[in-house]
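Subject: sequence -> structure tokens, single chain

Hey, anyone have a minute? Need the predicted structure for the following. Not urgent.
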Amino acid sequence: MKKRLSLCGMVVLLCLSSGCGKSDNSGSQSGSSGSAPNSASNQAPGTGSDSSSTAPGGSQGQAGAPGSGPAAGGVPVPPPEPPKPIVIPAGTAIPVILSTTLNSRTNNAGDDFEGSLASPVMVDGQEAIPKGASARGTVVTTKAQGKFKGEAILTVKLKSISVRGKSYPIATQSYTESEKGKGKRTAVVTGGGAAIGALIGGLAGGGKGAAIGAGVGGGGGLAASGATGGKNVTLAAESRVTFRLADSLTLDPQ
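Reply:
Had a minute. Here:
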């Protein structure tokens, strides 16, 4: 009986020991299998977070490009207005230094002469025509002394001026000088041939040219008068003659 009991006890112990071994193995297997999902789950979020962090970065990079676009391609700035032509109004003085000597006896109507601007012409504080600009003119009328009871007359006007290499046709009032036989000399600026004709008519009618010249000058045309001993009207080279524009002059913008 004792032997049987001891055998039974040994069997029971063996059974118990074999059962514990199985439970330990299953527990270790379950533990390893449990760690695998944890590592997988840990790895998946990591990779997911990397990809997600990269995706926003990429989207930010793409958004950055459009962000720079509006600055570069915003509302375009309008170009500056082109410079406007320069308009010199009628009546503006054009002072000219003659390069040619003119004489009422030796010159004829239609003769040309040259000169240069004595001082700059200004428009609204801006230099429109610089000093020294070349000018060309023509003789309108000449009357030598003796043809009208000793009276002489010389009328000239400008016809073109060169500004910064370009020639512009211009219309000026006529500049007239007359001289009586006794040495009385009068210079007037007239608006056209009618006034010149009146002056010549006065000379032919009895030596009233000086009075007519003074009357025209009183209306805004008298330039100079004085006594001289010359018998004919002479405008010497280097003389200064001031013309006035009859019409406005438009110049190209600077």
